[in-house]
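Re: your question from the hallway

Yes, I did run it. Sequences:
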Amino acid sequence: MLETLFFYAFAALALLGAILTVTLRNAVHCAISLIASLAGVAGLFLLQRAEFLFAVQIVLYIGGIMVLFLFVIMLVNLDAAARERQYHRQWIAGALSVVGTGLIFAYFLTRGAESLKLNEPVPAGPRNSEAVQMLADSLFREYLVPFEVASLLLLIAIVGSVVMAKKRI
Amino acid sequence: MSSTLAQILSQPWFIPLVVGVLILALAPLAVAGTVLLERKVLADMQARLGPMRVGPQGLLQTIADAVKMLLKEDIIPEDANKFMFRTAPIISFFTAATCLTVVPFTGVFKVTDVNVGLLVISAMSSVGILGIILGGWASNSHYALLGSLRSAAQLVSYEVALGLALMCGVMSAGTLSMTGIVNAQMERGVWFAFDNFGLMFVPMMVYFISSVAETNRAPFDLPEAESELVAGYHTEYSGFRWGCYMLAEYVNMFSVGSVLITLFWGGWLRPFPNVTWLDAPLNYGVPIVVFLATAALCLYLSRKQPIQGYAIGLVGVAVLFLVMAGLFAWPAFNAPAAPLFWFFLKLFIIMYLFIWFRGTFPRYRYDQLMNIGWKIMIPTALGAIFVNALVGIARG
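Structure:
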């Protein structure tokens, strides 16, 4: 009962935040709505007993990425951006893409209906301390090469941004 | 009647609820005490007396300050972003208080033991940055905005070193749960600061220095450098909203201190937790000596008070300390209270060190601050992880 209540609260937070992110005019308010949305998702992770994902979601997205976002937004002059028209008013193109995406989703959801079981209790998974270990095992044993390749990709992005930002290194 | 009481006492939510309420109720008082301690210790280091007028030896000064703060007019700047201006201090205090909920004060006296307790603390402290950034931005003031940007840059850079230093402790303990970490130190029979042949002392120092920067304390208090930025991100705040920021800052000091203690200094364990014959002298002797000495000091000072009321008040405080000493001699009280005593004694020492730093080190320049963070702290922490991992594997 309480869990359902929390689920709806977090889900509403995530959805409301997402909607406000695209509709509000002030960029800082948008960023804060995005934070609320991410926090709602973190809460949903917690309800699924994925404490590790919950903490990582908050550390990375809210504490890392969103702080940097806000950092940049505050340094930019926002007054001009806030006065500008926010949408291109292309209703037809927008409606077409929404309907198209909806159709694709509907098709795949009906195709995979048997693997999608709603309203099922959370299976009693491994205890969470073990879950963290299992995650580490699969990341650093089974999927070590993809993991390292991904980190290499990030490193290249960092080096590239430094090279592009600085004229003289 | 007594059976219902026993039923309530045995509920699983009883201790968490009581501890949670105690944290919320006592944290502001503890902050008031720490502020008074800070003013007194700094005064002593500068050969002054510090606050002396309100209460015996100025003991009630911070209480009076708190009352003054609550009664002040609440000012919101005309052009400020009203909603964010109101919300930002709440974020700061909320995240700071949430950190304390996963700290195990003793094995029993704690709100909860999350399996990823350490991660929750670093998550909450990284959300706390938002309170500072948004507060500085919402004030619509150059000083506040620059202060908050500095603060955010500082916190983001030192959080890396902080997290890397935590990794070493987690590697030694093999768990992220705060209670599990203390239990691991109990099993190993050594505080992690001295583990791995003393090599763990390096990450401990990295964590300690980074945590000073993380709480915006001197010598890393650039966000609030008075000579440059007036008061940093809370320049425009007054009254209780400013009080929220100040409470959050000190509660953050408590929580980083608690993590330091839990991870490296044995949490609620007494020194040499595995040596059984030291049980009586340490668990009984040290608290009783500490409380008796404080009581004696109060009695000595009570003879020097200018007003008779102050003298009586100080004697009352001395009697309280004597009662505490007596309680610690009582085994039924000592068994649960001694771990709590050790935890708070360690926390007190850490707080004293924080104040000592503020009294002795000059403030760093901004580029020096960044150099220390990125060029010294992070490489040292990475090296410490590497060496400690190798030593840990070699030891098995």
